[in-house]
């Protein structure tokens, strides 16, 4: 089957849609069934210009693998590129919910990202909307979305899409009203950290890379209304160019690593941050974009 409704589904996201000429009949044969969606990142360098510099490769393929390599592309602006209505070579050896080698069963989205966790706010808004739209057209639930990292065989063969948490995307896809465009001041995500013990550990969080990027670390309140103290010794953050951003609060004179209430750490431009902490109890990290 050559899926006829890809453009209609893509348009229902509200984002611009580019029909790549020939998409209606492009594929390694047709789809056998249409049962779900697999998310990917393109791993093309951030320095490549334009909205969707991977378009040629996902359409025509590379020396070792013939195209199409996805059914849909997602540009930096949130624009959706409709590439192929038939089977695309996107997942390789794979297994998910009883499906095996899912290329002719699951649609593949190749979203433009270098694979360092860097996504534009438009992509973080559009990616779940596109998944939701495709699942709606195939009348399937959000459990039928998975990342390449979830479906690959053997486990660990793939890491994409980096920075797009599967549970986060499903939650957004299931609640379209939660996918309002990001303004730069709202909480993008709340992460619960459960320490394995009271010793020193590091947790990595992923941010949107926006100028207003920050994390807010929130020790939990006990039954007596007081926060359980915890300690944050270092926050190391990186931008999409792999350069360090923000600051290491441990190097600021007078820094007190002990937190007895929430504290904000501004990390402008950060796409990920490592937080070194000690805490006896679970706590929350709010990601602000
Ligand atoms: Zn992939």
From TrEMBL:
<dbReference type="GO" id="GO:0008745">
    <property type="term" value="F:N-acetylmuramoyl-L-alanine amidase activity"/>
</dbReference>
<dbReference type="InterPro" id="IPR036505">
    <property type="entry name" value="Amidase/PGRP_sf"/>
</dbReference>
<feature type="domain" description="N-acetylmuramoyl-L-alanine amidase">
    <location>
        <begin position="22"/>
        <end position="162"/>
    </location>
</feature>
<protein>
    <recommendedName>
        <fullName>N-acetylmuramoyl-L-alanine amidase domain-containing protein</fullName>
    </recommendedName>
</protein>
<dbReference type="InterPro" id="IPR002502">
    <property type="entry name" value="Amidase_domain"/>
</dbReference>
<dbReference type="Pfam" id="PF01510">
    <property type="entry name" value="Amidase_2"/>
</dbReference>
<dbReference type="GO" id="GO:0009253">
    <property type="term" value="P:peptidoglycan catabolic process"/>
</dbReference>
């Amino acid at each position: 089957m050559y899926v006829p409704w890809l453009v209609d589904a893509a348009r229902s996201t509200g984002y611009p849609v580019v029909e790549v000429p020939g998409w209606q009949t492009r594929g390694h044969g047709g789809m056998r069934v249409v049962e779900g969606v697999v998310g990917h990142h393109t791993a093309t360098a951030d320095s490549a210009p334009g909205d969707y510099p991977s378009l040629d490769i996902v359409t025509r393929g590379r020396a070792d693998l013939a195209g199409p390599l996805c059914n849909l592309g997602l540009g930096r602006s949130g624009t959706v590129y409709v590439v192929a209505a038939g089977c695309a070579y996107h997942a390789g050896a794979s297994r998910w919910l009883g499906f095996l080698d899912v290329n002719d069963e699951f649609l593949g989205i190749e979203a433009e990202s270098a694979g360092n966790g860097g996504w534009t706010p438009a992509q973080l808004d559009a990616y779940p909307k596109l998944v939701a739209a495709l699942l709606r057209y195939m009348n399937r639930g959000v459990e039928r979305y998975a990342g390449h990292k979830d479906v690959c065989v053997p486990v660990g063969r793939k890491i994409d899409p980096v920075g797009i948490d599967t549970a986060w995307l499903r939650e957004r896809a299931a609640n379209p009203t939660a996918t309002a465009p990001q303004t730069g001041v709202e909480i993008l995500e709340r992460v619960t950290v459960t320490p394995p013990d009271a010793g020193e550990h590091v947790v990595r969080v992923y941010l949107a890379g926006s100028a207003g990027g920050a994390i807010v670390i929130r020790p939990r309140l006990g039954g007596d209304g007081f926060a359980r103290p915890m300690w944050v010794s270092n926050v190391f953050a990186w931008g999409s160019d792999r350069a360090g951003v923000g600051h290491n609060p441990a190097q600021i004179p007078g820094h007190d690593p002990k937190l007895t209430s929430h504290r904000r750490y501004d990390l402008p431009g950060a796409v990920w941050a490592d937080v070194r902490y000690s805490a006896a109890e679970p706590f929350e990290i709010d990601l602000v974009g």
